[in-house]
């Protein structure tokens, strides 16, 4: 049963390249899905505004019972009693009406402005969805490389643990044969224990970093993943040509926001314009001493129809300067957004320059640390050989091991700094989606 279950368990481990991780995140992360829903919702907003330009048709009906009819004072001349006043009830005990009414806006400036604003809103959400995708790609890429680096550090510790264990075993054999001191064996055991502690800390760090990666991917935390053990490529990058920040998604989003603020202002100004609407209605009314439904003239109930067609004109004259205040508030929103556009442009320029600087520094550090790792490896190999031949002390051996681990970790950290700076440079150029290639 164990042998049969092993392939199944192995198949459940998901191997992730950077492209796989980003693709999964764009399909499953809540941020991406919500951005797509916002685009869909903008279509309904357009339909909602468009509805204001279409006719509105309503059906209505009611039934009224008047237990006490109002008495009206009428001249007695109508009843053959001149010079007197007669109190006579008007109307019927029961009244029921049913009809259809139509309203059609003929001129409403706010409707025309609203239609243009709704289309711009759709474009705004499309750009926002693109920005959300870029943010998801950036977060996933950063966490992916951090997981990779933590695993590289763990691999270094594992290798050192194996080598140190071999040396400890040699010293243990020498001690048992009276060729080594107990203090040397104890020091190696302490060193081995320290390495094992660092190893457990790195195992925990890898797990925590993997959990962060799964979160930014929208992947269930319990899903086991495997990152291929590939080498980072330090490739030449185009650093001289500055990107056109006006093509960046962040900049375009603010420009589209500027359009929306202007439409908002125009919509408020539209309140100064008169509105004209066509109304029409056709109704049927029944009146009598009893419930008119299903009754006939023989029951004293009479039904008749009536209709009306009209134009409603509304001319705003004065509303206490409320419209003027809203127009000025909308103007302030436009001015604030213009300041955001200027600040964002400076921020994007700064990000590009910082990424260039970090790239250059990282390349220098990588080259230095690469040579340092090679040198530390040679020192460690020579020290181990000298120690076994009695030409080096245990302190020299431990120091050379620590120096090698430090050199390896510094090299790995420099690689991480380069990859993170590379992501920022790609972002500054507006090319984050190239990571999907």
TrEMBL record:
Keywords: Cell outer membrane, Membrane, Transmembrane, Transmembrane beta strand, Transport. It is found in: Cell outer membrane. InterPro entries: OMP_efflux, TolC-like. Its main location: membrane. Pfam families: OEP. The keyword Transmembrane applies. It comes from the Bacteria. GO terms for molecular function: efflux transmembrane transporter activity; porin activity. GO terms for cellular component: cell outer membrane; efflux pump complex. Belongs to the outer membrane factor (OMF) (TC 1.B.17) family. This is TolC family protein. It comes from Flavobacterium cerinum.
């Amino acid at each position: 049963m164990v042998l049969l279950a092993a392939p199944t368990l192995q198949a459940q481990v998901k191997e992730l390249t950077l492209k796989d991780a980003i693709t999964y995140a764009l399909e499953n992360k809540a941020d991406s899905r919500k951005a797509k829903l916002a685009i869909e919702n903008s279509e309904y907003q357009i339909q909602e505004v468009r509805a204001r330009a279409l006719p509105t048709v309503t059906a209505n009906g009611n039934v009224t019972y008047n237990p006490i009819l109002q008495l009206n004072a009428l001249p007695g001349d109508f009843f053959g009693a001149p010079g007197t006043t007669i109190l006579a009830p008007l109307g019927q005990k029961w009244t029921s009406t049913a009809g259809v009414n139509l309203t059609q806006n003929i001129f409403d400036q706010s409707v025309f402005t609203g239609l243009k604003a709704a289309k711009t809103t759709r474009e705004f959400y499309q750009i926002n969805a693109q920005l959300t995708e870029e943010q998801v790609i950036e977060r996933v890429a950063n966490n992916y490389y951090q997981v990779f680096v933590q695993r590289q550090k763990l691999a270094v510790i594992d290798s050192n643990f194996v080598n140190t264990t071999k040396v400890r075993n040699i010293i243990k054999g020498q001690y048992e044969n009276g060729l080594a001191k107990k203090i040397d064996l104890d020091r190696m055991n302490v060193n081995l224990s320290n390495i094992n502690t660092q190893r457990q800390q790195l195992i925990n760090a890898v797990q925590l970093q993997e959990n962060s990666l799964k979160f930014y991917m929208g992947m269930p935390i319990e899903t086991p993943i495997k990152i291929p053990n590939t080498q980072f490529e330090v490739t030449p990058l185009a650093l001289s040509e500055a990107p056109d920040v006006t093509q960046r998604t962040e900049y375009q989003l603010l420009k589209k926001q500027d359009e929306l603020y202007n439409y908002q202002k125009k919509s408020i100004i539209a309140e100064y314009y008169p509105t004209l609407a066509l109304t029409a209605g056709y109704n049927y009314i029944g009146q009598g001493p009893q419930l008119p439904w299903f009754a006939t003239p023989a029951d004293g109930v009479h039904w008749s129809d009536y209709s009306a067609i009209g134009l409603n004109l509304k001319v705003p004259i004065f509303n206490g300067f409320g419209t003027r205040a809203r127009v000025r508030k909308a103007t302030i929103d436009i001015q604030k957004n213009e300041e955001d556009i200027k600040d964002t442009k400076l921020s994007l320029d700064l990000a590009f320059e910082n990424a260039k600087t970090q790239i250059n520094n990282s390349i220098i550090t990588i080259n230095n640390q690469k040579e340092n790792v090679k040198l530390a490896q040679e020192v460690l190999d020579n020290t181990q050989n000298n120690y076994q031949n009695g030409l080096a002390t245990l302190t020299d051996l431990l120091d050379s091991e620590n120096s090698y681990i430090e050199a390896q970790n510094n090299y790995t950290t420099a690689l991480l700094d380069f990859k993170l700076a590379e992501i920022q440079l790609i972002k500054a150029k507006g090319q984050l989606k190239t990571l999907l290639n």
